[in-house]
Amino acid sequence: MSDADERMRVAFLIGSESDRSVLEESGAEQMLQRIGLDTYVGVASAHRDDPELTEWLDQHTDHVQAYVCIAGLANALAGKTAAHINTGRFEPKPIIGVALDEHGVDPIAYTAPGLPIPLFVGGKRGIEQATLFTAIMLGAADPEVAANTQAELIRRKEAKPVNLPPILDTIAQGKTKEILEDVAGDGTRVLIRSKDDITAGDGERRDELEGKAVIATTTTVNVFRLLNEAGIPTHFLGDVDDVTFEARKLKMIPLELVTRRIATGSYLKRSPETDEGTVFDDIVFEVFEKDDENHDPMVEFDFDGGTFKRYVASKPKDEGLISEEPLEGSQLEGLSRATLIEMEVLTRQVFEVLEAAWGKQKVALVDLKIEFGFDATTGKLVVGDVIDNDSWRIWPGGDKAQMKDKQVYRDLAGVEDPGAKAKELGKIKNNYQWVATATGRFTEQFSLSQ
């Protein structure tokens, strides 16, 4: 029952509107939705609104596979629900009672004779346990629900995995990747899985390149293996499959660190006095904040004053000031001068290693964008995220016309004809594959140079 229109449903019946807040605080509806079950919520008192209760049950009975009845002290609501729903049924449905007040509870009162009704007590905790019990029962009819329920139990530390495959939660989504974590793991590692998407303009333009996920993961794995061999600290642990690699879990820093050897792109807009193609003797280092709303502005820090400035990345600095704000309370709160210096040193080292690797294949590394995070276990600063063909500009033979990187896709913005666009996307995919193959030679070249 994996399709949305075939998902099983659980009805929460509450005895009065005042009980709704306890149900909401329990998180039971969200729990069932994670497990793969839909929910309804109804309000009806077994004491005061008997006709309304039976009318509600008649209206929803064909769409509901189990009922969780939440009331005050007794099983009255669950009992009347069971009597109405299950009397004479060849396949009775699970009816669960929850008494919100554990003092003076009477589990027998108003219970339908001959119809078993489990009763849970104790407010939010009682609702949680009743909900999990319901999911376990419904899982007998749906393997997907059973697996998701097991994951929920492990997530809540209510069970330990025994001979189970990894149960993965998506903990973050990016434009071209997703981050997953095994709920039964120790919280130190994640899986990073690439998508077939290619984007530009902060995600405003998006296309799908079949097979890009494999190519992007191959490139990232090749690059991180080289960096690890070069002694640069990264989060990379190893590849898992064609589209996934394993990494240390990080607390990411919302900055993009950029190094440039050749002037091109947005640098020319910020520095119009510089000619395109100018080669910098000293690598240029710049910092940009991850902020889609402001198109990833360039940032400068005043750590003594506890502030930072944002600048439009496509204008000269004296024309592009967006704001000056305190670090405290921002997404960059906690960033220190020492950390920024360490990131600059490592970013330059990464550029130099990759520049040398590309240079051996007569390819110019024009610029590079990387990210950092703190290891969730050790607190150590390491290179994180991905480094693939979206992360740099590369010009074979130093010739911009031969570029193989994402800039080719950015330049595709004016192509509207579907046939022409499909043809160009095919060329872009070929470029990406060329890069994946070339980066596969990085570690071999590095070993030969040692």
Description:
This protein has 450 residues and is of the alpha+beta class. It has helices at residues 20-26, 28-35, 50-60, 76-86, 123-139, 143-155, 212-229, 266-270, 337-359, 407-410, 418-439, 442-449; strands at residues 9-14, 38-43, 66-71, 95-99, 119-121, 168-173, 177-182, 189-194, 197-200, 205-208, 236-241, 244-248, 250-252, 255-262, 279-289, 298-302, 307-311, 321-326, 363-375, 381-384, 392-396. It contains twelve helices and 21 strands. The radius of gyration is 29 Å and the shape is elongated. It has two domains: 4-155, Rossmann fold (3-Layer(aba) Sandwich); 229-239 and 245-449, ATP-grasp fold, B domain (D-amino Acid Aminotransferase, Chain A, domain 1, 2-Layer Sandwich), CATH 3.30.470.20. The protein starts with 8 loop residues before the first strand and ends with a helix.
Return the CATH topology of the largest domain: D-amino Acid Aminotransferase, Chain A, domain 1
Provide the CATH architecture of the largest domain: 2-Layer Sandwich
Number of helices: 12
Please, what is the average pLDDT? 90
The first-to-last residue Cα distance is 57 Å
Query: What is the structural class?
Result: alpha+beta
The CATH H-level superfamily of the largest domain is: ATP-grasp fold, B domain
Please tell me what the overall shape is: elongated
Tell me the name of the CATH class of the largest domain. Alpha Beta
Radius of gyration: 29 Å
Helix content: 25-40%
Total domain count: 2
Report the β-strand fraction as a percent range.
25-35%
Largest sheet: 6 strands, antiparallel
How many DSSP-defined strands? 21
Q: Give unreliable regions as ranges.
A: none
